[in-house]
Phage holin family protein
Amino acid sequence: MGRAVLRVLVVWAVSTLTMLLLAGLLPDFQLQSDDGDSLTRTAITAAWAAGAFGLLSALVWPVIVRAVLLVPALVLGVLVFFLNGSLLLIALWLIPDGRGAADPETAVAVAAVMSAVASATSTALAVRDDDAYRRRLYRLADRKRRRTDTDAPEQVPGILFLQLDGVGHQVLRTAVRDGLMPTVAGWLDTTHRLTPWRTDWSSQTGASQLGILHGSNEDVPAFRWYEKDTGRIMVSNRPASAVELQRRAIERTGDGGLLTLDGASRGNLFSGGADQLALVLSMAARRGRANRSRAGYFAYFSDPANAVRTAVSLVAEVFREMYQSTRALLRRETPRVSRGGLYPFVRAFATVVERDVVVAAVMGDLLAGRTAVYADLVAYDEVAHHSGPHGRDTDQVLKRLDRAIALIAKVAEHAPRPYRIVLLSDHGQSTGPTFEGAYGLTLKDLVRAGCGLPVPRRVGRTRSGSEARDAARDALLGALHRPVDGHGEEAETARQVRRRPSEPIVLASGNLGLVSFPEVPHRMTHEQIELRHPALLRTLANHPGIGFLLVASEVHGSVVLARDGVAVPIAELTDDGPLAPFGPGAADAVRRTDGFPHVADIMVNSMHDPFAGTVHAFEEQIGSHGGLGGEQSRPFLLSPLDLPEPPAALVGAEQVHQVLRGWLRESSGPQVPVPVAEAPAAGEAGTSPAGEDALKS
């Protein structure tokens, strides 16, 4: 008690001195009356203002943060400064005799400095007092732990699954070798084993995390795809799509997910059946107080020191990105994509705000003694998309991720139960110039040219666009001059060709492209596409930037098409031939996707150079994932040695789910499935096994 009072007094004194210093430096910040005051009187005024600001920050700030929980997270990071400044203006207004005054702009700056200094002072005092630090941890644990727990959970290990989004197996090994991640390196030398695994064809977070958390990623052909039966475009990182994907997975498995038993989901696309949520995308589809996913913001930003510290780091990250992108531009580094617009702020949110909130939530889960926690840190993935998966920009992110891992591991030592920490990734990233950067046109441009549809003039001037347009024109002229007899499907298709070409929907998921023709209610076959667009498949298959196509066939079931007229029936497909550059398992991955109900009419995978490891993304990314080719298909699983060793050939996110579920069973007994009947309809929220919010996606 005595030491706590002493810390409060020291923080108050330092805050008072800081306020006096700022009053002397800033002309628009006043702590004296208009007639002037003695130094003693000014010091008393500063002490009064510092004390009032401290009390307001402790008592009023949590209420303010709760009131603005529905504000978008990126906006909240900026509002922190202005809200804090408002508290300072109120504190100055409370000074007797009107001795305190400041312009609003000055108040924002003074409040930021005051909060940072108070936080730094308090932290420094706590670090020097080990007993106080331990007492605080245990107090948090006692407050958060359920009072109904009577079975001594301290004796049963919990498991923390920490996902490093987009960090491939080779990237992790290189980072450990180069000393970028000393914490992970220490684990590899002593307590953990490293296991690579192979993704499905759709090597992206939506497919991988749905499979890992819910045990099924069936019918997720890409990051975004068009569904003919519903007429909508599904996008994995849209809340409404995430809700539907999770509902479908639960309906297929009859199970709420990996985290149904005393679990927490932090920073993920899907809930995994957890009752405790923070920054879960699928939960974001719900509004109002029921959206407990935003409670993670309140838990973190209710401390004004946290808010200011994160806001300052966010601004610093914005300027860091501006500096790094300018440096890349001046050095003419290639490949390169545009990094202007809102991207610096998007990057800052992913690398600062999301990281801080998720790490704080995970530490709270550990201190609360939760059985299973799954958290996603997206920082590396976001930066690698625009800076590339290898280089100084991503090296800095890996260093900061390692520090976050070390902090979490340190807190785990003070948890009320032992914890096994499992690191894993959902996919890797492959590098290379974009398809447009290499050939001057997008995949959509190439498809439209191959269909004989209008394209921008710049596309017609490119070699690819010119060849595709000429081939489409020649094929269309040939079709128009052929006689049309009879009343069968071929005759009707020929008549449609004569009327007008159809408008395709072209979507990109990294280096995986999807082409759909929405006016046809079923999956089109090779033969039907040839009748409607005689030059399209040939144009795509022979393009040097495209590795292979997958289309249905009336004769062969489905076929893989590649350059020089190669056509391999899906039943005869092996990892040789057109799929040889894509490595082992490519044929099985393609075959599995071919059976999905919502597979596109034409699935397009870019080329892959197995020697350079490069691919061509069909969107603006020089570090990409979503298809086959290179490091994107090789994520990792880093697990403690006291857990059973995973299979050497670990293929697909669904198999990873089975491994993780087996580890949970070993630690805490069998999980309790959720009856399928409890799964809500699309777009609705359901209940978890514990009674609330199982379906957050």
